[in-house]
Amino acid sequence: MIEIAGLSKTFGSGASAFTALKDINVTIQENEFFTLLGPSGCGKTTLLRSIAGFVDPSTGTLTINGEDILSKPPFARPVNTVFQNYALFPHMTVAENIGFGLEMQDRPKAEIKSVVGDMLELVQMTQMADRMTSQISGGQQQRVALARALAPKPEVLLLDEPLSALDFKLRKEMQIELKRLQAETGITFVFVTHDQEEALTMSDRIAVMNAGRILQIGGPKDIYDHPAERFVADFIGDTNFVDGEVKKVAGETAQVQLQSGKVIKARNVAGGATSGPVTVAVRPEHADLSAPGGLIDGTLKNIIYFGTDTHYHVQTDDGSTFVIRRQNQPDAVEAHEVGEKVGVTFNAGVAQILRD
Amino acid sequence: MSNETQSAKTRWLLLSPALFILSIAAAGPLLIVLVYSFLTAGDYGGVVWDFSTDAWFNVFAEKDFFDDTIGFSDAHLSIFWRSVKLSLMTTIVALLVGFPTAYFIATRPESQRNAWMLLIMVPFWTNLLIRTFAVMEIIRNEGVINSVLIKIGLISEPIQMLYTEFAVTLGMFYVFLPLMVLPVYASMERMDFSLVEAAYDLYASRWRVLKRVIFPLVKPGVVAGSILVFIPSLGAYVTPRVLGGGKQLMLGNLIELQYGQGRNWPLGAALSITLLAIVMVALIFYVRAAGDEETSHG
Ligand SMILES: Nc1ncnc2c1ncn2[C@@H]1O[C@H](COP(=O)(O)OP(=O)(O)OP(=O)(O)O)[C@@H](O)[C@H]1O
Ligand SMILES: [Mg+2]
What we know:
The structure holds two protein chains of two kinds. By secondary structure, chain A is α+β, with helices and mostly antiparallel strands. Chain A has helices at residues 44-52, 94-104, 109-122, 138-150, 168-185, 196-202, 220-225, 230-235, and strands spanning 2-11, 18-28, 33-37, 59-64, 67-68, 79-82, 156-160, 188-193, 205-210, 213-218, 240-250, 253-258, 263-267, 276-282, 287-290, 296-305, 309-316, 321-327, 341-346, 351-353.
């Protein structure tokens, strides 16, 4: 279990000081596939490097299984890293790379040999054991980097965008393989990505980061269905933002009056507004078209056919755009046409009040 | 005409200026020196065009002044030995100092590295004699070190440092250090420092990171630097002359002596060829050893 509390990091000092991490609090469970998701420059690598020991946090505590590790150098932490650029040793073979960590731990030669053999098998690289790392493909290098980090059986494996250099197909394969490896080894994975789809498909839990802060932590479904902040809703998936005013709050739900005058039931998160103007988020696939007189009215501006589904762009009467996504049925005839007056409807509870 | 012969022609054309200069500046003089070494010395310097192997005999052996018995030339052999020994020492010290220096510079932020390199290079642009006399000023009996030590009462008599092998080594080290730092720094700067992090991450201590990752990766720079320091040290002339004070002669001084006061050009020529041979043998051994280790690694 990794416990991070009040962690912050400021690079430089004086006028050039830059705070890359602000008050990070997170607990990562054993055997969890935990993902740090956020746009470029939000501090994902800095947080990962703090755990690995290459960044010295300015404040805060960091323990692994109850033991403080901030005072320990990288080589004394029970943590291994798969680097973004793999960082394989170019003067060693594939097998020597994988055995390096064990060798540095002074494990017996026979043990090193057998573990390296197991690892080669695990990542399906047995045939390439004696190649130099410059003589294997990018995907193979990625697997060697993974095997090298797994070989010493660390308690935590840190992965910094390990799939970003791979092409689409290989990436999909490696995503499945990574999941399999995590299940087989039972090691805690802390995985960094800026690809929301990758995060949603692979993670047990996701921490969404922006500008040095963790905005929301939760399971993929939780994060997707119930984004707590505008940034999270916007960053993950597509979202319609609708302005309204909170009329009444009752526990998890609140009544919000939209600009059309209609009142909807929306989900309210902890710390959300209890009165006054708010923004609610509605996913395109959670809404539908109706005859005029829906929750929001407008004009159909665009119909875009995507194969699996069709997107309807509605220009609402208050001037914004609302997107609706409908799954396609075989041989269905398009019932709507551009320019038509339409209404937008969605079920009670799919709208989510955002914290600002 | 095929493209290949065309490009081969172009290649020769491009090479020709270099070949021309090399043949005039290196091959030609070398040939002359080789020929001279088999001629007879003129009475007032120069050579007489009579074939003789005297010079080569005198490189290694000498006739006893009194009874004409032949023995090894102790004087020459001790100078050969000193040259090799001091050059090796210089190379080792330059490596021990130059390697951490290069590492230090390579790990500075990119904006500062050139400034640090400039500091290393500045002495290199200063006249050799001036630099050598600067070393002399520091280590002579009335020099900076001795004055300070006497002033603070650590010693009462000055320590004799000038005109010793130590002085010569120190001088050569100082003069040739940039030749070590430059190539080592060049290969270190090219090194991917995330490899160092990867090694730390995989439980390697600092010492083992150095031994298993950094050193193997910058070895080409170390080999180049060692060669660049060793060779000019072996032929050094000004530094042993000034700091060795005629007591610590090296091969360069011995050769100069033959062309000057000794008036024995053939012997000077034979000694020059000997120096060249020592350099070649040392190079072959060194490059072999460096290469062997490489192949045994991978
Ligand atoms: N050593 C450093 N000195 C100064 N600023 C730094 C340093 N390292 C990182 N930063 C800054 O901290 C911020 C976060 O960097 P970080 O590398 O953690 O981002 P990231 O989320 O990993 O981005 P990416 O997805 O592009 O890899 C960036 O604005 C970066 O410029
Ligand atoms: Mg990063």
